[in-house]
């Protein structure tokens, strides 16, 4: 009897129309919208729906409160919004809820999506998973998360040998514009020994998206990947959400015990989106125009990558992450680059001058390091890379004198060795984007180049 009564109550509740709390637009200034009538019912991060002229609806998010009114920013454009436009609480889509969550499933592999979980590839809607995950989540507890796993084959000789990466490690890829970081990311997406790749294109040029998917990533790379895209013309909320959505998808597969490769291009554009949001919400500019909230949010997002929590019944999953940092004017000490370098487990520096010589990937091994080395390599491998670095450093110091003829061969045996071997090492570091080299083969090629007696 009681079960029948409860069932009738559930059926009655299910048949009731959804309730909405309605406010109104009180003002629009720049990128922000002021709302009246919602203050007691909303908090920062809540999703609402704005009704523009002609019945068009626009998703928005509460980003702050000021002078007794709520401040929101939209996920679309502001066209058609004006004083009196309605603002409703209760917005929800197929894959993203009012609290900001994604219902990720394995069926998302091979798909290209936007930050709200909507398909961009014309293959139909994404099937939602059974358990939505919040876009904002805390990193695993530091004392209960697993340690880094074994070294990970990235498929790129210069990275495998000089900045060897372990499963669950986080590396920063620092480069100016046009140095080849997108091509390097595509090599990593195709060649890294992982179960799943999650790729976040934050603020990417619209014309380059298809080129990246079809030419750089390819069908084989896309098949095991989920690609989240927010182009440069997207509102700042969408560019910010592209980073959170990719991290949430990576966490879903990590919690299934998988080894996940997360590639984010770029953290700089994520921070620029945070800056636009913070300034629109009324935050004061601080370091080079960045409000303080940017440097508070950055570690919260980056720390979510890495080893997963320890599990009693099976090995933990890992998120191995590479975050690109677009250094403005090749200034590697600008605020975002400096903050990211201090948080991550190593940094890879791409140099424009190396690219101009025709050697790609244009990675400067003397300025790049992985904090997991030397612990993950053998003593012989560590000795090999130390000697190679020393030879490259000595050659870099003497290169101008050699070119000018100011150095005479035979004056210093160490310089003679560097002059003979440095070009051979550089030849090993050159690699086409379709070439894959394992960790063992990378060290073997480096050893061969440093022991050859005849010029290459």
Automatic annotation (TrEMBL):
Q: Name one GO cellular component term.
A: cytoplasm
Function text: Probable catalytic subunit of a protein translocase for flagellum-specific export, or a proton translocase involved in local circuits at the flagellum.
GO annotation terms (biological process): bacterial-type flagellum organization; protein secretion by the type III secretion system
Matching SMART domains: AAA (SM00382)
* SUPFAM superfamilies according to UniProt: P-loop containing nucleoside triphosphate hydrolases
The annotated region (Disordered) lies at: 120-142
Which CDD domains does the record match to this protein? ATPase_flagellum-secretory_path_III
What gene name is listed for this protein?
fliI
Protein name (database record): Flagellum-specific ATP synthase
DNA-binding as UniProt keyword: no
The species this protein was found in: Lichenicola cladoniae
Please provide the record's keywords in A-Z order.
ATP synthesis, ATP-binding, Bacterial flagellum biogenesis, Bacterial flagellum protein export, Cell projection, Cilium, Cytoplasm, Flagellum, Hydrogen ion transport, Ion transport, Nucleotide-binding, Protein transport, Translocase, Transport
Which reaction is catalysed here? ATP + H2O + cellular proteinSide 1 = ADP + phosphate + cellular proteinSide 2
């Amino acid at each position: 009897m009681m079960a029948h009564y409860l069932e009738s109550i559930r059926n009655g509740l299910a048949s009731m129309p959804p309730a909405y709390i309605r406010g109104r637009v009180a003002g629009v200034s720049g990128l922000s919208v002021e709302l009246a009538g919602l203050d007691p019912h909303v908090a920062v991060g809540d999703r609402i729906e704005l009704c523009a002229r002609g019945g068009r609806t626009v998703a928005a998010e509460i980003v702050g409160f000021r002078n007794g009114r709520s401040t929101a920013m939209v996920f679309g454009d502001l066209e058609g919004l004006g004083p009196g436009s309605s603002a409703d609480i209760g917005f929800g889509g197929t894959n993203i809820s009012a609290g900001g969550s994604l219902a990720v499933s394995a069926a998302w592999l091979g798909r290209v999506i936007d930050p709200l979980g909507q398909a961009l590839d014309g293959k139909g809607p994404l099937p939602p998973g059974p358990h939505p995950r919040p876009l904002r989540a805390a990193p695993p507890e530091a004392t209960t998360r697993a340690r880094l796993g074994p070294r990970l084959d990235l498929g790129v000789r210069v990275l495998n040998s000089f900045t060897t990466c372990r499963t669950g490690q986080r590396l920063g890829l620092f480069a100016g514009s046009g140095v080849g970081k997108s091509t390097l990311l595509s090599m990593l997406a195709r060649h890294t020994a992982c179960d799943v790749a999650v790729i976040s294109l934050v603020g990417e040029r619209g014309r380059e998206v298809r080129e990246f998917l079809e030419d750089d990533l390819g069908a084989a790379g896309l098949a095991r990947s989920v690609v989240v895209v927010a182009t440069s013309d997207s509102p700042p909320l969408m560019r910010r959400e592209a980073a959170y959505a990719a991290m949430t998808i990576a966490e879903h597969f990590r919690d299934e015990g998988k080894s996940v490769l997360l590639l984010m291009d770029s953290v700089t554009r994520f921070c620029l989106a945070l800056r636009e949001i913070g300034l629109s919400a009324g935050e004061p500019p601080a370091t080079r125009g960045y409000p303080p909230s940017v440097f508070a949010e950055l570690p919260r997002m980056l720390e979510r990558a890495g080893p997963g929590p320890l599990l009693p019944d099976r090995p933990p999953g890992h998120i191995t992450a590479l975050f690109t940092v677009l250094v403005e004017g090749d200034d590697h000490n600008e605020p975002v680059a400096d903050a990211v370098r201090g948080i991550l487990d190593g940094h890879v520096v791409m140099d424009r001058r190396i690219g101009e010589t025709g050697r790609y990937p244009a990675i400067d091994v003397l300025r790049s390091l992985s904090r997991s080395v030397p612990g993950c390599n053998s003593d012989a491998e560590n000795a090999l890379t130390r000697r190679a670095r020393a030879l490259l450093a000595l050659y870099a110091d003497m290169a101008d004198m050699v070119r000018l003829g100011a150095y005479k061969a035979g004056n210093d045996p160490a310089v003679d060795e560097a002059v003979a071997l440095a070009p051979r090492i550089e030849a090993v570091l050159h690699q086409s984007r379709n070439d894959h080299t394992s960790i063992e083969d990378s060290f073997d090629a480096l050893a061969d180049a440093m022991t050859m007696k005849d010029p290459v």
